[in-house]
């Protein structure tokens, strides 16, 4: 069944878009990621203009994060205090990201920048995730590392320490505030929640307990993506409400199944599969930018 998207100016298969939202929702519930790192590129591959794909994907991220966050909250897997600090940083980052987005729109380079950033970001994260998964599965062997301190040295040296009881941490709020700030910028520019970067950062930099990382990440993503959606709706006017609604339908349902799957499937195999998906998307984005790109130049009328 085809349906018309007013902002994108095209018709799409509604069932296919809902299925895409469902897939991303499952990933959100399993890994604590917003899923925009897959939603936005796949929408672009489908033919949705990059600016519309980025702005509309943030709305879907909000819905999927609501569903997943509540599922983890019922299990006691959310550090509310940590999430609040990261959300404050994310709100500031969203405002900065909105300014950058408008600047790139005015220069006419927003589509190229979005594509390039996705190739770099997905390629790097996918490669690291693939390596970690293969080590955890025993497919490749590494020398035994020295015992790693719970906190990163930079994080441990920051002043004004607070206690985060749910995570069992005593550290400066500056570190989670900075992480949230980065996530806010990425959410506005790329339509991603930033969870696939924030989750490992929360574990390896902040030293958070794995049992609260996914739920706390989703709480932060929920708040930041909601703010970002409002920013896009009022400044860039690129949110296609019909497209966002279709993605939301699938995303909310998929997140519930994703939260259930985390207790039934081997995490290392899931991480390996996710790494493969990320690298495949990065390769497709790279080919779109370098080998027979859709548009090799733009004509502007002055």
From TrEMBL:
It comes from the Bacteria. Its main location: membrane. This is Probable membrane transporter protein. The chain crosses the membrane at residues 12-38, 44-71, 83-104, 116-142, 188-206, 213-235, 241-260, 272-291. Pfam families: TauE. It is a multi-pass membrane protein. Keywords: Cell membrane, Membrane, Transmembrane, Transmembrane helix. It is found in: Cell membrane; Membrane. Belongs to the 4-toluene sulfonate uptake permease (TSUP) (TC 2.A.102) family.
